[in-house]
Amino acid sequence: MKKIIFFFLVFSQLGFAQFTDINIVKEIHTKNKGLVVSAHPLASEAGAKILKLGGNAYDAVIATQYALAVVYPQAGNIGGGGFLVGVKNNGEKFTIDFRETAPEKSSRDMYLDKKGNANTDLSQNGRLAVGIPGSVAGFYATLKHAKLPMEKLIQPAIDLAEQGFAITQKEASLLNNQMEFFNQHNKNKTVFQKSTPWKQGDLLIQKKLGETLKLIQKNGAKGFYEGKTAQLIIDEMKRGNGIITLNDLKNYKVVERKPISFDYKGTEIVSMPLPSSGGILLAQMLKMSNFEKLEKYQQNSTPAVQIMVEAERRAFADRAEYMGDPGFIKDKTEMLISEEYLKNRWKSFTMNRATPSSEVGKIIPQPKESTETTHISIIDKDGNAVAVTTTLNGLYGSKVVVSGAGFFLNNEMDDFSVKPGVPNMFGAVGGEANAIQPGKRMLSSMTPTIVMKNSKPYIIVGTPGGTTIPTSVYQSIVNIVDFKLSPNMAVNSPKFHQQWLPESVLVEKNFPESTIADLQKNNYKIERTSQIGRTELIIIDENGNAIAVADGRGDDSVAVE
Ligand code: DON
Question: Measured between alpha carbons, how far is 484 from 299 in angstroms, rounded to an integer?
Fold first, then answer.
């Protein structure tokens, strides 16, 4: 097994501003020091800086998220939403649901044309795709677990917005690829649009975003949900077909929920309940594959993959049928994760062939995946842990920047089932449980997770990837608990994914060809993809030795206190 302890990539040494040096750190081993892993080195450093100033994990996660909203505009956000799972060193476990909600003027069939066909362009792009953002309210709800004042936590992001930072190669090419969509969906010019292509090392300065962050710094959550920023959002809605109102913004509320938690082989898994399907899917998949004693097999061997794929297929069929916002539907979580129900669900499993998806649920297909959304894992020196996954949904969300306020708005409305059976941008289908209703939260796959051992945080993990999120978190956990891989291999070895519909199994490049050939013999249809997810993982042993790994698939980076 390849063992990589530390590796550092120095991207740019231009030295003309504070934020032009970008050091990507992929792995850190430490003891009794806080660790932050996120999608961008400057955001991880912002979190680590707050830890050094005496903040705890919850202070650091607020600072990291604000910083991501500046340095990682494709997914880091104040115009989107997410989910946070926390475990404190006093044993308290909590979650914060800051998922977007459907506007008061939304309705079940708002994306259907006169003939009743779904227009997914409208649910995915432009102003009508936007749900009421939850992030800023989420940061304020996190504050009660933190130690420092919000003014301090937001300051690193303000500095990054005002002084600018050098963009990486990956960011430059993403911005260039998206230019035509920015041009199409913005009436006023944004800082992300440029007549010549972006290149690595270019300075991205975001003065308007800096002003918005200062308003939040001065006025609290009202600096976003009321007053000037709220009015700028409404003005932006009016430049097209947006329906969000001042009332929608003023009435946005986070929900603090009891985490979903269950035993897995001597560990306790703590994850996100509905309206994210993540925790339920994770419980279902782990429990079903445990019927076959997964630990007997090797990672990515044919039997292991087959067992896991079939667990994934059955869990995702249940997602489509039963899951949605528990404020609007009957919550079936208890039944769905019970041993009795899952044993019954597993009866149709056989090692000899792929189970046709039509045998585990009622049908309708189509694929898709992307790498937006973003995850942060943090542990502080006192043993407080936090996992948060946050998103604009697609790459740069709706592609609409609020003019005068400088931030992207989400396209989260597409996570509703816009029409029963019509796949969303991740190929997920749903039905009535996830139909659009004003005030409702759209079903998510985000799976911020903390695994406990001996009542202490053991693994802190999460990833972006749409519907591939729960299956990637599932694999990261079994890679450690069942297959005994190093944290680095748990994150960076090739992953796979099945989501009931489409029928095929998605495999990442470098996936073992012999396993692919065996699966094909058993009637599995294989599709290849360049990458699945960007997992950020921290593991802490019983002696307090911690290892943080940032996914090698992107610019993801670890910072230490
Ligand atoms: O909440 C969800 O499940 C999606 N909006 C997440 C989107 C995502 O992960 C995009 N990145 N690949």
Answer: 9
The answer to whether 56 and 384 have CB atoms below 8 angstroms apart is: yes
Q: Which of 371, 373, 467, 515 is catalytic?
A: 373
Backbone φ/ψ region at 164: left (φ over 0), alpha (ψ -120 to 50), beta: left
- At 167-181, the pLDDT tens digits run 999 999 999 999 999
pLDDT tens by residue, 188-232:
999 999 999 999 999 999 999 999 999 999 999 999 999 999 999
User: 19 falls in which pLDDT band (50, 70, 90)?
Assistant: low
State yes or no: is 373 an active-site residue. yes
Does the CA dihedral 30-35-38-43 come out positive or negative? negative
CATH class of 257-370+446-560: alpha beta
Ligand 1 pocket residues where CB is under 6 Å: 370-373, 391, 393, 412, 415, 444-446, 464-466, 469
Q: What does the pLDDT read at residue 363?
A: 55
Q: Write out pLDDT tens, residues 126-170.
A: 999 999 999 999 999 999 999 999 999 999 999 999 999 999 999
469 phi and psi, to 5 degrees? -65, -55
Angle 511-469-22 from CA coordinates, rounded to 5°: 85
Predicted TM-score (pTM) of this structure: 0.95
pLDDT digits (tens, 9 = 90+) for 441-463: 999 999 999 999 999 999 999 99
Q: How far is the CA of 112 from the centre of ligand 1 (A)?
A: 23
Distance separating alpha carbons of residues 320 and 103, to the nearest angstrom: 23
**Cα four-point dihedral sign 460, 465, 471, 475:** negative
Cβ neighbours of 16 (radius 10 Å): 9
From residue 472, alpha-carbon distances to 180, 276, 373, 477 in Å are 31, 15, 14, 9
Ramachandran area for residue 53 (φ above 0: left; ψ -120 to 50: alpha; else beta): alpha
Residue ranges per domain, the chain?
257-370+446-560
CA–CA gap between residue 336 and residue 342 (Å, rounded)? 7
| Of 198, 246, 186, the residue nearest 401 (C-alpha) | 186
Q: Which residue has the tokens 């500046």?
A: 70
Query: Whole-number mean pLDDT of the chain?
Result: 93
